[in-house]
Amino acid sequence: MSINKVVQSFEEAVADVFDGATIMFGGFIGKPGSPTNLIRALRDKGVKNLTVVTNRCGGVDLDMLFEARQVRKAIASAPVPASRKPMSPFEAQYLAGEVELEIVPQGTLMERMRCAGGGIGGFYTRTGVGTAIAEGKEAKRIGDKDYILELPLKADFSFIRAHKADKMGNLTYWRSQRNFNPVMAIAGKTVLVEVDEIVEIGALDPEAIVTSAIYVDRVVKIPRKES
User: Fold this and answer.
1) Rounded CA separation 97/176 (Å)
2) For residue 215, what are the contacts with CB-CB under 8 A and spacing of at least 6?
């Protein structure tokens, strides 16, 4: 008997997200690859004290969560774009001491999530040595260079944007959707995905599948806008 992971609404997909959860959000800067509909459903659910893991804290999508004051902490690589005016809801709340921030260099962020998905206990990197990034972290001298230890980064939920899924949950991506989405899909305990199209099992070219169904828990199709 085949497994069908398709759910009928975004509200159903986020139904078990709880207060205090850690959630990873795919996307890079702004709209491309961002799970907009899942984020909107999360805002409407009204859960609080969230820790968000994202490349950037601003943008049309995540702004919704900060505007609703649902976020307690952000873990991000580029939390505030230098050119944005007026300042984002995140920046205003951070400067007011209302939300915490952990800055993680982009490559380190990716590798920490990859370690979480691969069952790897951590890795040593030179990125951040001699900066505030290294504070409180184990240091090690390897050869003639200094390194710091970075630990895996896991999440209770990952919100993912993909192009196509089969009913079992295998995923393909379209262009810039393939940014943080694949690595976040392996680092979340429960993985929710919104897609443009859902096809029958076996309809996807196996060579085109990027995220295996073993990592995916729920899939929702994005409704087409009426012309």
Assistant:
1) 33
2) 117, 169, 185, 186, 191
Q: Does residue 198 share a domain with residue 180? A: yes
- Between 88 and 29, the more confident residue is 88
φ/ψ of 221, rounded to 5, equals -85, 135
Quote the pTM value.
0.93
Nearest residue to 158 via CA among 215, 205, 207, 114: 215
Domain ranges, residue 162: 10-104+153-221
Instruction: Give yes or no for a contact between 105 and 132, defined as CB atoms under 8 angstroms apart.
Output: no
Q: Where are the alpha helices (DSSP H) in 46-180?
A: 63-67, 89-95, 106-118
pLDDT, tens digit, for every residue of 133-187?
Answer: 999 999 999 999 999 999 999 999 999 999 999 999 999 999 889 999 999 999 9
Distance CA 169, CA 31 (A): 23
